[in-house]
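Handout, section B. The chain below has 58 residues.
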Amino acid sequence: MTFRVINLTRGEIVAELHGAVQAKQLADTLAADHQYREQFAVVELVTIYETPLNQERT
């Protein structure tokens, strides 16, 4: 799985990480660094659709 740390206040993606624990720690650290004036979220990315691949080889 992939987890995004997002600054909700600014609407910016801050990081993409493979571990939920590390993403939460980063979100908490960033919130503290910004003196809790900005809000951060950890979002789990889930694949809901993949396009098919062309089976022909060129």
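Note. The CA atoms of residues 6 and 14 lie 5 Å apart. Compare this with the example in section A.
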